[in-house]
Structure formats: structure tokens, C-alpha cells
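re the bet — no i am not wrong, look at it urself. input seq straight from the record:
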Amino acid sequence: MSIKEKQPKKRIQVQVDQDLANDTEQILNELGLTPTTAITMLYKRIVANGSLPFNVALTDREKATLKLLNNTKKLPVTNISTQKDLENWFADDSKDYQNKRHN
């Protein structure tokens, strides 16, 4: 098939966050590109490289946030639904984490 012959097209639909789409389209517009052109470029790089054209990994900050979130899952949680629950929680010295930390 020669370069001038048109290949059949396939419609690809995706859903992305509205703000992300708007921000991306604004940048693409400044670059003189359409979303279709950008996605076509991405697909061509994937085929050429046999992989994504960028590193898919968490940043150091994202890793730290994930570690923090995972560690907080181990912390005890007290369900406080009423004023009385709150008063009891404050009165219970066994829950005084600040003083335990300094002892």
C-alpha cells in the first residue's frame, strides 16, 4: 500500500477527568496539535518502541505518600458519633498518645 492510500480508521473513546482534558487540550492547542494527533503520535511511539514512550513509575513523593497511607491503616481508630463519645475519648488516659510518646 502506498503512503498516499488511506488506511481505515478505528474510533477510540476514552473517559478522562474534565479538568485534565481541558488543561491538556489547551497545551496541545498551543503546540498546534489536536487530541487526535497527540494520541496518534503516542500510538506510533508505542509501536516503534514496543513500550510506552515514558517511564511508568511512582515519584519519590508518591512513594512516600503511599507508604504513609499504608502505615496509617495500622493505627487504631475510635468511632466517635456523639458528644458523650467525644467526652469519654478525651477522658480516657489510655488514648493519650502525646503523653505516651514522652514517657
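see?? Residues 89 and 95 are 7 Å apart (CA to CA). told u. also The chain has a mean pLDDT of 88. so pay up
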